[in-house]
Amino acid sequence: MSVISEENVRGENLFKDISADDEDGQPTEIESMCMNCHLNGMTRILLIKIPFFKEVIVSSFSCDNCSWSNTEIQSAGRIQDQGVCYTLKVRTKRDLNREVVKADSATTRIPELDFEIPPFTQKGALSTIEGLLDRAAAGLEQEQPVRRATDPEVAEKIDRFIRKLRELKEVEDEFTLVIEDPSGNSFVENPMAPQKDEALTVSHFKRTIQHDMQLGLRADDDLEDEEPAGNDIDAMRDEVLAFNTNCPECNAPASTNMKLVEIPHFKEVIIMATNCDSCGHRTNEVKSGGATEQMGTKITLHITDISDMTRDVLKSETCAIAIPELEFELGMGAVSGKFTTLEGLLTDIKDLVVSKNPFICGDSGVTDQVEKLHAFGEKLDKILAGEMDVHIVLDDPTGNSYVQNVYAPDPDPEITTEKYTRTFEQNEDLGLNDMKTEGYQEEE
């Protein structure tokens, strides 16, 4: 067994950046039992920090006795604040080549076949859509010899189902692939980025108590039924509350400050800011201090001057962002809720789509896609410099987003605000369809 030095545990030497010139970044080799022939094989473990992405643990097993091999990837970073669900309409064979990061906590579904792979039944993997189908078929075939001997009827049904799985790779008919991960660490590639992918839908959701228990974030007997320490809103307005947390970048102990702030001509919001003394990472997040509005809000800002970059912007976590002139759309939850300026919001979008996109870094980036994303980044730079005439659209179904009116209290000629009635699907995503606020105390 290898021994990890105390210096590595305390410092940042444990996870190293990927580099072709790093001759010291050798994997740790551990002799372990082969699960196929039950003789000894070799497991190689490598701790890697992927630039602009996160820390991962890559492990590979190979057996010289039976030639069986297996690879696995695990996230070594933090569990995200929200879960994520990817819904992909597979229409062509090109869709089968999309890269997929599937965490072991993810549930994979194909509704057309009524097929589901439950969480924690497979190890995490970096693969493609075709690779996921092959892996599912291989998993079903594993016990088929035993089934044919003990229960031929069930074995025949499974054989027919395996044939249906393999027929999906011909893409004769469109099918749907759903990957739902409460940890938020799974990913499905959008080959059209930064443009919206009509075949791919990405949604974020709040984890349930059961999800937290599956991820080990909550004990089985952790009821958390305690009443809040106080509900004096007036006192909260004048006080900065602090609570202990972990840094989202280095996972070191940190402190998050929280304050209730009233935005002029809008409403009250809760601003939370985290500052890590260990690595210097700073982040802020905004939550609405009020209820969900009766109607959604669509705010369109026409950028006519570089001074527009200084406008205050409140973007809730449910708000989608679009730039029609660039054919760009960013779904809700992709960028967390924040109170910033328009310049800060556009900079965050550039970092998310271009600067910190792990699939355009190094040798893994496809040339056409890399060039397209860099061209998109250059257009964002022109917008930030006030050299492009564009519109920024903030579409928030909860009505909790805001763009500063520099002419207040008079109307702003460059801002158009539209109120609309939410659709059933939007209410479903927000959890409002099943929410009952009247008469619930009378039910038993």
How much of the sequence lies in strands comes to 25-35%
Number of strands: 25
Tell me the Rg in angstroms: 25 Å
N-end to C-end Cα span: 57 Å
Number of separate helices: 9
Report the mean per-residue pLDDT as an integer. Answer: 80
Estimate the helix proportion, in percent: 10-25%
Structural class: alpha+beta
Molecular shape: globular
| Main sheet properties | 5 strands, mixed
Low-pLDDT runs of 5+ residues are: 1-12, 223-231
Structural write-up:
With 444 residues, the chain is of the alpha+beta class. 20% of the residues lie in helices and 32% in strands. The chain has nine helices and 25 strands. It has helices spanning 6-10, 129-141, 144-150, 152-167, 209-214, 233-237, 342-355, 367-384, 424-429, and strands at residues 16-17, 28-33, 40-49, 55-62, 69-75, 83-90, 99-102, 107-110, 115-117, 125-128, 175-181, 187-188, 200-205, 241-246, 253-262, 268-275, 282-288, 296-303, 312-315, 320-323, 328-330, 338-341, 390-396, 402-403, 415-420. Strands 1, 2, 3, 4 and 5 form a five-stranded mixed beta sheet that branches. A hairpin with a 4-residue loop joins strand 20 and strand 21. The chain is globular and about 80 Å long. The chain starts with 5 loop residues before the first helix and ends in a 15-residue tail after the last helix. The model is unreliable at 1-12 and 223-231 (pLDDT under 50).
